[in-house]
Specification:
CATH architecture of the largest domain: Up-down Bundle
Strand order of the largest sheet: 1-2
Distance between the termini: 75 Å
Shape: elongated
Structural class: mainly alpha
CATH superfamily of the largest domain: Rhomboid-like
Length: about 270
């Protein structure tokens, strides 16, 4: 048995850097004035009431905000440990699609449950990358579920699918017990949308499927134009005698020369030029 740390794949490095940079900036701003962080939460955290009133950018920006060291550290550790494996297997573009689907799915889930009155309310802000992290976790459990993970410092191995299931259950329990101002349960929307992406998204990802659909529609339009032009030509030919244009072998006849020619021997030359 060998122990090794996962690599830092390209998208994972970018996400780690962006989230860590914003977290450090918020810590620095907090030492200067607490009002700065309050304004950041006001304008960039996901507040369902504000989203439906037009502040739509919050469905993305909330995922880069973290409140407290352990909130940031837990998400970034899971992103590195599990995200690098998914990105190494799927490549960067599809991994970013999975993460984005989780983030947007969690945002949609948060807005829906906030107005339904299940938990919290439309004025409760949601922050953190947990939506994207849960999408990565469910993908890891579905695709690499039989891989074994050592729970350091505990000296035993556990299959990834069971480990992911434990994390999901703990997340639900902690979210239900949370009495703070952050709606953590809303992040579980990323779990559901991550499952849908792994289960039903095309092998090449949504971008490839969208490109194929676009070019398929374009080609269908061109085929329709060709069929339409062919029908117009058929109508035109029915209005004229076929023998005026084609010979008995179906070849197109040379157009008649209506102008007198004084070229002598040149008259025997064909009038078609290639």
């Amino acid at each position: 048995m060998t122990l090794s740390l996962p690599p830092f794949t390209p998208a994972v490095k970018w996400l780690l850097g962006i989230n860590t940079g914003i977290f450090l900036l918020m810590m620095l701003a907090g030492t200067v004035s607490r009002g700065i962080n309050a304004d950041i939460i006001r304008y960039f955290a996901l507040t369902p009431y504000l989203v439906v009133r037009g502040e739509i950018w919050q469905v993305v920006t909330y995922a880069f905000l973290h409140l407290g060291f352990w909130h940031w550290f837990g998400n970034m550790l899971a992103l590195w440990m599990f995200g690098s494996a998914i990105e190494g297997m799927w490549r960067t573009r599809r991994f970013v699609e999975l993460y984005t689907v989780g983030v947007l799915g969690a945002a949609l889930f948060s807005v829906v449950i906030s107005f339904s009155g299940v938990l919290g309310g439309p004025l409760t802000p949601t922050v953190g990358a947990s939506g994207g992290i849960y999408a990565i976790l469910i993908a890891f459990g579905m695709l690499l579920g039989d891989n074994e993970i050592m729970l350091i410092p505990f000296p035993f191995m556990i299959r990834a699918k069971y480990f992911v299931a434990i994390l999901i259950v703990l997340a639900i329990v902690f979210s239900l017990q949370d009495t703070g101002q952050t709606n953590n349960l809303a992040h579980l929307g990323g779990l559901f949308f991550g499952y849908l992406y792994v289960k039903f998204a095309p092998r090449g990802g949504l971008q490839i499927a969208g490109s194929e659909g676009f070019y398929g529609l374009r080609n269908s339009y061109y085929r329709w134009k060709r069929r339409r032009a062919a029908k117009k030509f058929e109508v035109y030919m029915r209005q004229h005698k076929r023998e005026d244009y084609f010979d008995q072998y179906g070849n197109f006849k040379e157009p008649p020369d209506t102008k007198p020619s004084n070229k002598g021997n040149d008259e025997s030359k064909g009038r078609w030029v290639n």
